[in-house]
Input
Amino acid sequence: MKCLTVALFGAASLTLIAPAHAGSTLDAIKSRGALKCAVQGPSNPGFGVPGSGGKWVGFNVDLCRAIATTIFGDPEKIEISALTTQTRFPALQSGEVDVLTNNTTFVLTRDTQLKFNFPALSFMDGQGILVPRKLNVKSGKELNGATVCVQPGTTTELALTDYFRKHNMKFTPVVIQSRDELTRAYADGRCDALTSDATTLAAQRSTLANPADHVILPERLSKEPLGIAVRHGDEEFRDIVAWSFNTLVNAEELGITQANVDEMAKSSDPEIRRFLGVEPGLGGALGVDEKYAYNIVKKIGNYGELYEKYLGEKTPLAIPRGVNRLYTQGGALYTPPSR
Output
């Protein structure tokens, strides 16, 4: 591997390592001509649902499209797999899919034991509890003795158990793997409450006959930093995933939108010019087209645009941005700068 040594302001030399050859995952993606991406199955409104003509749409689907745009310049070069909470990890480990964008919580054991990297935290969430409004329950602490619908093999199941133990309460779990079947069980009255990430509950509530008849309780049983997951071992692909997501956030921070990106490319601001590839360097450092960021924003939008399109106040989910606002707006969305 070639090394370049440059003097840095007369101080000690800085050794730059030339980009390595693409890893096996990235090689396979380029060879097949498509990114294999997993979203929630069979669907999760707002985050990923099959639309007209079988084309998938949703927040997490567009995260896949952003990655594909960085690699190919084409957001449609994706193959979507709708996986359950129990099938997603074996699919990623085996190479059946290249990346998970399906609201997977970043925790220590998934990094160290499952050998997954989380290049980006795409959504900050917390586990909630959904109950029928008619129960007149105001807090999870009023659910002693309740039956609770929950998916198996998730951090949700553990957090639920911990919550009831912490408050010296008992509950009976109704465990069903399929999210849609679990929601139907709740709708049919087989359980008093349904628990999952609060955003997932908002999505599933929107599919009920009368969404307004159900309320998400105020407590959050856990913190759920939801991330994009890839396998250990391919740093080039990990970098592409990370900077595809960072581009969405940095574009919003810079005020660059799908509508104004062409006008912004004429800016004299050096940061914007580098970001959009008008002045080369960033794309080359990543091993992709210099205009990869321009292409992502032009073809998909920025983070805020995706949020409002699929999850925001004007959608059936009506999820306030809250902590998922930019840090400049009082939120926790803070990504490394593109430079």
The first strand starts at residue 3 and ends at 6.
